[in-house]
């Protein structure tokens, strides 16, 4: 059996060394030493400032929306995981879906511009599969209409545009540290703010709005704190992150080479690196995609329709039925993510690609 994903687990002894420090201080939560160390090390590794660790990636997005007091509508992409839009709806913000760029699979700035109205308070693009958006176009759009630009960067750990972290673009970027991600802390996430004032407000909000220096409640808040146990796992994983990314990128490139003429793949940002987060492949039509998925299952290989369905088609967003996104809707029926994780071998990748070729051509040759 080859699963579509498998969490990386650091050596148990390495993890327990961090846990021993937690036990020694009996400090389990409330911004303890492990969380503080993780914050500092992540800022250094990623090349960012104002990084705030939180309990998960969805809360990271919700916290960012609250910090900026968003309301009304936000323009976002339908080709992404449900949390990108449900986090908006949960905060009472109506997601408006603009179609995607057919080459990058990311939110199209020109399509997004057509949905901006007096009710719009933000643009929420997603770096889909870790592939950076057109950050310059969204920066110009945000400036033109006085809108916040908040990036869902859940897949973009370690991604740079040139020498600049992709997390430094926009008013804020959010990360997920879920177990399935390139970097994880079992559950967790982070918000990276452009401005320190926004970061400081978020720090207050993540602890119920309590100013710890005075004990006074100075803002509305919630509990989004990351625990010491989760931070310990994050630190243990971070110790191995270069090897993790190097191996995943090598497998990603092997997939590209072996499936180059079999299926389409997103056109990667010309100035960005890759991190091996996912390997999406797009087939000629929905029927071929289903045939490949069925054949892989018969070979005990798990693939995933990621992302499907196109979010603009979901019943809970029926009030915005006018948000037509034909490119996203088409890709959602034709795109699969194939197995990609640290424990996967090059030989197993060849097994997967041969199975894909056999499903498409009737032969693995």
Automatic annotation (TrEMBL):
Keywords: Aminotransferase, Pyridoxal phosphate, Transferase. It comes from the Bacteria. The keyword Zinc does not apply. GO terms for molecular function: transaminase activity. The keyword Transferase applies. Belongs to the DegT/DnrJ/EryC1 family. This is DegT/DnrJ/EryC1/StrS family aminotransferase. It comes from Arsukibacterium indicum.
